Structures are given as structure tokens and as C-alpha cells.
Amino acid sequence: MSSTLSFDQCLQSPCDTCSAPCCTFLPLHDFVMQTFDDVDYARYLLNFANIELAYVSGQTWRVHYVAPCSRLDKNGLCTLHGTVQKPQVCLNYNARSCFYQPMFLQPENTNFMRFDAERFEVLSKLLTFSDQGQLLELPSTEDLISQLPPFVFHPFEQIDLPQTRYKGFQTYGFTDLQSQCEGCSAWCCQTLSFPFGGIHAASNLDYIWFCLGFPNVELCVTEDSMSIFVHTRCRNLLSTAFGGCGVFGTSKRPLVCERYDGMSCAYKAQVGTEQSTSAVRVSVEDFAIFQEQFQFNGEGKVISQTPFTQIRDAIYQAR
User: Fold this and answer.
1) Does residue 20 come out as left (phi exceeding 0), alpha (psi in the -120 to 50 range) or beta?
2) Percent residues over pLDDT 70 in the chain
3) Is there a single domain that holds both residue 133 and residue 202?
4) Going along the chain, which residue ranges are E strands?
5) Are residues 196 and 254 in the same domain?
6) Residue 128: pLDDT above 70?
7) Co-location of 140 and 185 in the same domain
8) Which of 79, 182, 207, 276 is most buried by a 10 A CB count?
């Protein structure tokens, strides 16, 4: 039930008494659930540590990475507050229309529902599909609240990822490429990739600066695209050796994994290679060099951008 505030009380920011979930839950990607493949994609995502889904307003599914921003001090306060380094995403955030407080700090309601793997598994049993894989029926949020078990929060889990050691500059014959997954360190089981539309304005660059503040988050840049990488680990990965999936050959293995085409895999080159020629990963330490590759007009729109190969070489040379 909402309370009544005076004008002077409204002048006080709601952030002053908030525990700052906006600094702990990084929104990565929105999608809608219309097919079995969409449901399978959600199941795939929830296998990874520090990932949860939010069902928003009975329409949109939002992927969140659960991790404290690396710019927080031991008391949970922002070390960039009051400096020009603080992302505009944070400075300009409208606390009066905050998504985080009702989502993460208030009792569950029909507008905001959270899902981990166990809760989503229960949901999946309530779904029906056409013989073409179209989702026919998704229970209302009112019914879901009554039928699903309570959400259990999983705190941030520190992931120790293997060091990059794949050598991507060898030559291979066609027959060598028939079993691409053999000898791989299972980078696809330790990295989630989300599309990013590119740098078209200063606000896009500021958003990347905001994202890179979260641990294990990088921007992957190629000649044609940009993606946000989250380095985490599938809970089913028993070993990085070939065949190390704990649900391999069972119905619990997502079709995303079952159907994955190793011959067109980008993970080896983009994640497993320390200095790939086809991609460069931008970390928070690389951002100072990366942001210099863009020029803007007075309205904050990009008017020039360094070609990919020069961006890649500039970052590699600075390391």
C-alpha cells in the first residue's frame, strides 16, 4: 500500500534509504517466450551460475547477472560517486520509476517474478505447445504465484575460470575440423554472450562503461558486431575435458547445447585465444583505450570510429 508524501519528502531521493540492488543485478537481455526454443533458451541460461530471469508484467523475460559492482567499497558505497568517472547510466537513473525496488526488495507480485533453474523447471511442466513448437498457453501471473514454489535467492558465486591457452594460429585440414569440441576447454560452457547494438552515441559507450564495472563482464568486438560477454560456468560442467557435461545424453541437456554447431564455433577464437585476430575482448582495464577510438558531435552522436583492426591492435599494444 502506497503512503502519502509531502513535497519536501518527495525531494529526498528514494536511493537514500535503498540497499542498491541496481549495483548488484545487471540487466543483460530481454526476450519474449513464444516457442519451445525460447523456453529451452531460458532453461539453458539458468544452468549458469549467477544468472536469474525476471518475468516482467506478464510479457517480457529479462536476464540478470547477479554480482556486486566492482566499484563498490566494503560498505557497499560507490567509489565513483561524485566523480566524472561515474557512469551517466547511474547518475541519470530515475529513482521515482525504479524497476529494482519492486523487483528485488518488495514481496513478489504479478508485475515482477524471479526465476532460478529449480523454479523454472516447475514452470516448464505447466506449459503446452503445438506440434510445431509454438507455446500455446502460459499460466497467468496470478496462477503462477499460487502454483510455483517460492523463489530462493542465490548469492554471488565466485567463479574460477581456466586461463586462456587455446592456440588459434595453427592450420588444419577439413577432416581435422569434424570434431571441433575435442581438445577444447569448453568455453561455450563458461561464457554467455548477449547481443549489443554497437556504439552509435556517447550513451552507448557509457552503458558499456557501466556494464564493465561488474566482475567477469567484457565487451567482445568483431569486424561486424559487438556482444556483451559474461564469464560464468554451467553447473552441469563436471570437467572441461571433452564429454565433461553432467547431463550429456539426457533430456535435461538444453537443445541449445545439443544442436550447437562446433564447426562454426566462435568461442575458441573469441574467448579461448589470448590475442585473437578476428575479435578483441574489452575489459574494464581496456576501456580508456577503447573509448578513444570514437569521436562525437555536440549532440553525443558518433561521427567517426576507428576501424576494427586498429581498435584491436591499440588494445593489444596497451596490454
Assistant:
1) left
2) 93
3) no
4) 25-31, 51-56, 60-66, 112-115, 128-129, 135-137, 191-196, 217-222, 226-231, 279-282, 294-296, 302-305
5) yes
6) yes
7) no
8) 276
